[in-house]
Amino acid sequence: MKKTKIIYWVLTGLFAFVMLGSAIPNILVNPMSVQGFHEMGYPTYIIPFLGWAKLLGVVAILVPGFPRLKEWAYAGLIFDLLGATYSVANSGKDLVQWAPIFIFVALGFGSYIFYHKKRKATLFNESSRPDFPLKNTFQSVA
């Protein structure tokens, strides 16, 4: 359990750092973001929206609890990365310029996988406690 937690927090911390590093420039509508969106043919008014969405997703994956919200946050962040990869690849950029995004996608998937491993281990440990309230819920009444 301890190993799973450590791997989860390392991957999640790195993934959150990457996504936060992408969200802040978008929120501030920095010139590099504007130039990139122009090169791909996207409107610039979407930049701050994507930045705030990424920031909220990062907060959701870092805050304890809220499992359903985490699921949506992981999905949104991964969709953002895959959409960015697709857009940059189809804008005519060289492979070397967009292929590293797959490292960030792998961090996201790793964090997601270890989130579920950690959650399953936590639920299993709680259910084996003698004071766990749902332990004998499904016993038949004779």
Could you explain how this protein is built, in words?
By secondary structure, the protein is an all-alpha fold. It is built from six helices and no strands. Helix 1 (2-27) runs antiparallel to helix 3, helix 1 (2-27) packs across helix 6 (101-127) and helix 4 (67-90) runs antiparallel to helix 6 (101-127). The longest helix is centred in the C-terminal third of the chain and has 27 residues, at 101-127. The chain starts with a helix and ends in a 15-residue tail after the last helix. The relative contact order is 0.14.
In terms of per-residue confidence, which ranges show pLDDT below 50 for 5 or more consecutive residues?
Answer: none
Shape: elongated
Structural class: mainly alpha
Strand content: under 5%
Count of individual beta strands: 0
Number of helices: 6
Report how far the terminal alpha carbons are from each other.
38 Å
Order of helices and strands: HHHHHH
Secondary structure: helix percent: over 70%
Overall radius of gyration: 20 Å
Q: What's the main sheet like?
A: none
| Average pLDDT reading | 89
